[in-house]
Structures are given as structure tokens and as C-alpha cells.
Amino acid sequence: MALTKIQDQIIEEFSAFEDWMDRYNYLIELGHDLPAIDPKFKTDEYLINGCQSKVWLHADFENGKMHFTADSDAIIVKGIVALLIRVMNQQEASEIMNADLYFIDKIGLKENLSPTRSNGLVSMVKKMKMYSLAYYAKHKA
Q: Most buried residue, 2, 62, 63, 90, by most Cβ within 10 Å?
């Protein structure tokens, strides 16, 4: 499914909630539904710098598409990374590298996070785009 279509679905889902407490609860639910990362990737090598919480992110390239798995020790952050994976998983590396992740602003995510969580969100997006750039460069060379 196209990045824009997935983002539009997320915007629609979040619009059903009246306030941010309901949205936080939904993020927590999404985090609970995040598929488990292989324990061998829960090492310092896969930690994302810039996050206050621990966030492990692993990327792979399968059949021309990026595949991400992640985990966090913070329940809301786990929900945030679940949203990012939902949007960017199984997409072509070039699409991820150039993606405008407009859903973040449309659902009010960045403005309703603490400054440290907001910085962590930016770090997660950067890391996913960097993985995509690396795989793109490796497979297009």
C-alpha cells in the first residue's frame, strides 16, 4: 500500500478521538500490537541515539522493499515507532528516503509530545531514512 494511503488511514483513525488522552491510549495499544523484535537486535548496536527511552531498530531489505522491526522500553514510544513502521514497512527504499511524513503533524503528534520525545521521534525517522539510503546505495550501485 502506498505511503500516502497509509498516512491518510492513520489520520482518519486519530480523528476519531476527542482528546489527547484517548490518542495516547491508542498509541499504547499500537505499541502492544507491535511484532516482537528478534532479541539478538536488542543490543547497543541497534539503539537509536537521540531518544531518551531505549529504542532498538533493525532494518532489512527483502524483495526490493525495506523491512523494519523495533522495540522500546517506553510504552508510548513503542506506539510511536509502531506508527512509523506501519507507514514505512514494505516500502521501497527510495520512497522512504523521500517520504513526506505529513501524518505526524496532521494528527498533532509532535506538538503533543514532550520535547525529549519529540526529539526521539525525529531521531527514529532519521534512522529509518538512513537505513533506507544505505540499502538504496548498496543495491543500486
A: 90
DSSP annotation of 1: -
Catalytic residue chosen out of the listed positions 3, 51, 87, 88: 51
Q: Is 125 helix (H, G, I), strand (E, B) or coil?
A: helix
Closest residue by Cα to residue 114 from 30, 24, 16: 24
pTM over 0.70: yes
Which sequence spans correspond to the domains of the chain?
3-140
- Second-level CATH architecture of 3-140: Alpha-Beta Complex (3.90)
Note the pLDDT tens digit of each residue in 95-119: 999 999 999 999 999 888 888 888 8
CA dist 33 and 27 (Å) reads 10
The tens digit of pLDDT for each residue in 29-45 reads 999 999 999 999 999 99
Q: 51 catalytic, yes or no?
A: yes
